[in-house]
């Protein structure tokens, strides 16, 4: 894999788990010594070929030996151990040769470029002297009253040589304000919230660096913008109608010593501006993308998300649901589904009757793409990733709580969604917005900390399942758990990625029934009705 770091491009490849005991490493890294992708790519391909050759050779020998890892490590015959050693030594030797080859190639290109530059300078010097001589000749001819034809020929020759010496003209660069609108016009198939995010970023950049032609912006402008954005208060962007400038926000944050925005937020602003500059760089309207390179951002989460402890679960269980926008029955079922399946909140809130089906006699939730309803484009929805489209068997706890009855009722009444009291809202047009707000208020009111959120139910399910040992009675394979949760999974072996396309539904049911909670966690009566 080709990795771009501030120091340049690197080659990285994971060592297959079954030969790590021989190679002695989990990953192979190599600096390619260049920041130019067109140079790094063929170099990386050559390194990949040598790496593949090593992996195949070691794998073949291990297959021939047909022994386990302990035998390989502790009791390997000396001649076989030496063979592995020679294979690895040969690999390092081949990599060294490749490195020398590409270093020589870079040096040869540099020498050729230098020769071309020297030749150009000589040609320019000769042309400049020629222009001076031609001008003197032209002056003498004018005094001798020659024919117009000879003067015109000489004048044309002088003009041609001056045009050669004149530096090439760059295309005029558009003003940032106009360029940003041109760029946004290309974003035809994105959500309005994405467009709003771009506009907010462009507005702040104009406040900091002013409206100039794109070519006039420098790395100093990007650095100033980054510095001010990093000083914004944590609450920045929470109030839609706040008209304060970025400088005013920073002044208040400094005066009151408020917590600042995350590095991830600042990086998002840079990513949007980088997209704008890349668009015009490809059209030769800027000379450089000033938002790429070695910019560093602290992208570590300020609040680490943790799972719900039994004490936290006991705190919310049996509490009255005080919010009128969503019924307590809906709240019960949403939280119940999340706690037993690990489904994401929006996945749950968008469930339709046709998403509940029986497969081999087992009732299941089908997490799948939704086409848009007529004249309602916001109803279109897709799973988060390819792995997000999945089958989730409904465990007995959720069946007992009435999920199947609720689905049947929605079908009988001709409703499009199972949870009829949820509405699309917010700039992202999500069905989960009101519930998420109300649930957050409830847990905060009960004194549950910031690190525990609704998404933490997904952590609960993952933790409970991965604590069940893979081997023995009741064991769960890692690939079953990944398929149940909609994770792509870390095991990228050929067997998993090619031949293990669909986990058997009985294995998924085994996963679903393995999620257990204490007796006080009763989905049917999780929240009391409002007093």
TrEMBL record:
Limits of the Core-binding (CB) domain: 174-281
Keywords in alphabetical order: DNA integration, DNA recombination, DNA-binding
Segment forming the signal sequence: none
PROSITE patterns xref list: CB, TYR_RECOMBINASE
Recorded superkingdom: Bacteria
GO biological process: DNA integration; DNA recombination
Gene Ontology molecular-function annotations: DNA binding
Pfam families, A to Z: DUF6538 (PF20172), Phage_integrase (PF00589)
Family annotation (InterPro entries): CB, DNA_brk_join_enz, DUF6538, Integrase-like_cat_sf, Integrase_catalytic, Integrase_recombinase_N, Tyrosine_recombinase_XerCD
Domain Tyr recombinase: 303-513
Family indicated by similarity: Belongs to the 'phage' integrase family.
Protein name: Integrase
Lineage, top ranks: Bacteria, Pseudomonadati, Pseudomonadota, Alphaproteobacteria, Acetobacterales
